[in-house]
Design a protein that fits this description.
Strands 1, 2, 3, 4, 5, 6, 7 and 8 form an 8-stranded antiparallel beta sheet that branches. The C terminus is likely disordered. The protein has one domain: Protein Transport Mog1p, Chain A. Helix 2 runs antiparallel to helix 7. By secondary structure, it is an alpha+beta fold. It has 8 helices and 8 strands. The protein starts with 11 loop residues before the first helix and ends in a 6-residue tail after the last helix.
Length: about 300
Amino acid sequence: MTDEQPMSEQPVQERVEELVQEPAPEPAAPESIAPVKKPKKPKKPKKPKKPKKPLRRGRVAAVAGSVLLVAAVLGGAGYTVVTVQDADRDPGAPSWTFPVPAPNDAKTAKTASGLAGMLVPYGTEGWTRGPDIGEFGSDASLSGPEATALRKEALRDLPRSQRRELEKRIDKQRTKGIAMRSYLSTSSGISSTLYADSGFTMSVALAQIEDKAAVKGMSTFQNEFFDALKIFRKGPEIKGYKNAKCFLPPKDKDEKLDMMVCSAYQGDVLVSATAFGAKPLNTKGVAMLLREQLDRIAEPGEAV
């Protein structure tokens, strides 16, 4: 055997010492880390713009809708057509187109008989012919069958089952007729400066129904309905007629027109009235015409 030893047989201890003496490799330089940016504060969301007020479709139209709702529930007995759609609703120029008063208006009204004869005649205290009440014109009378058909027509938007039930009730009540007339509050209304300041229009409808309890119930329901909503202003009292009630829409500074709806009854006659005018509405004038109308029905024999 020779004295030299192969590398593989080098003592383990010597090999370990050599490895320990070898310089350790330098650690790699750490990669540069980009500074963390602070997150940007989220932008505050813009406040949504307040929707612009619709042009003049506000509270007067809401009241008109309430009147039509009541008309449907009551079966159209107080069917005074609220001609909001026919009026000029531009806030800068509230106006209607009025018919020129005919010379014989007062004479024709005074000679009217029956239910129409109870209406306040044109020419009384300066009242003249007003705008059309829907398709009926400014002065119209309907027979019992026509009035019954009109009351049922007011139910057309109700569900079928409810409509049929109310139609049966209308038949049992026996409607004798409806008379309606519209008024302008000054005798020279078209050219009068007084009209420009305080004039108004008013439509009055009389529905004569054989069932007096139904007449009382319908008027009471309408008045309690408006009172229960708590948003309508109460109109003036009608002296001598506790069952007569009037209501106006809530105050709104942007409204140029105002309106007032009234309901009352005398015996078998249901009285419905609707007035329109520039602000401030002459509510005393409306009350005066309504009282005069009730006086005419209250006279002995007038409501028979």
